[in-house]
Design a protein that fits this description.
4 helices; Glutamyl-tRNAGlu reductase; 66% helix; mainly alpha; NADP binding; elongated
């Protein structure tokens, strides 16, 4: 996250992203932000891994495909539980805040 980029929490409680009945973050907006953060981490780590592997002699197209699929699978696995919690219906505001806190910054 850059200094000018809002945090996930700030973005999710943006004026247009609050639940109509409460001053709470919107679960769907939080889910989208978490998915976007996961995609950004996947791209960054995939770029790093492919660069390191290329420096060691390159990759065949099949090897590259396997690494790309693995990166996507890891991100999908990590995000499955919070996305499931935030998906559809009524979501506890504390669950939304917790999910945002977990994915707010890249560590």
């Amino acid at each position: 996250m850059t200094d000018t980029e809002p945090s996930a929490r700030e973005s999710a409680v943006d004026a247009g992203e609050r639940d109509a009945d409460a001053d709470e973050p919107n679960a769907e907006a939080a889910r989208r932000l978490i998915r976007a953060r996961g995609a950004a981490v996947r791209r960054r780590e995939l770029r790093t891994a492919l660069s390191r592997l290329e420096a060691r002699g390159g990759l065949a197209s099949e090897q590259r495909r396997v690494v790309e699929e693995m990166a996507a699978a890891v991100v999908d696995g990590v995000l499955a539980a919070p996305e499931s919690t935030l998906a559809g219906g009524e979501t506890d505001p504390d669950a939304v805040r917790t999910a945002l806190a977990l994915f707010e910054s890249e560590r």
